[in-house]
Amino acid sequence: MTEVCVAFPVLSALEEGFEVFVATDASGTFNEVTREAAWSRMAAAGAQLMSWFGVACELHRDWRNDIDGLGTLFSNHIPDYRNLFTAYTAITRRISE
User: Fold this and answer.
1) One of 4, 5, 87, 91 is an active-site residue; which one?
2) Average pLDDT of the chain?
3) How many domains would you assign to the chain?
4) Are 54 and 72 found together in one domain?
5) What are phi and psi for residue 90, nearest 5 degrees?
6) pTM of the shown model
7) Active site includes 5?
8) Residue 41 pLDDT > 90
9) Helix or strand or coil: residue 29?
10) 12 is in which domain, residue-wise?
11) Out of 20, 50, 79, 86, which could bridge 54 as a Cys pair, Cβ 3.0 to 4.6 Å?
């Protein structure tokens, strides 16, 4: 539950001086009001709210290191991203030929 299982450790970590990032789409709760209240509480305390996609991109940092690995992960889980990755792969193949 976002308001307990996520918010409590986030607030504790912030209190201890950690910089905290919350993947907002990686947890759930009973309804939109409860979710929004939990997010507002964490953000007001200093947590950075972002999506799992944003977290993955930040952890990855530099696409030159592993385009196919993370690109494949994204294209397997995000249908719209698959179109982008397919186009990128086709263009880079043509350029390298």
Assistant:
1) 5
2) 89
3) 2
4) no
5) -65, -45
6) 0.73
7) yes
8) yes
9) coil
10) 1-61
11) 50
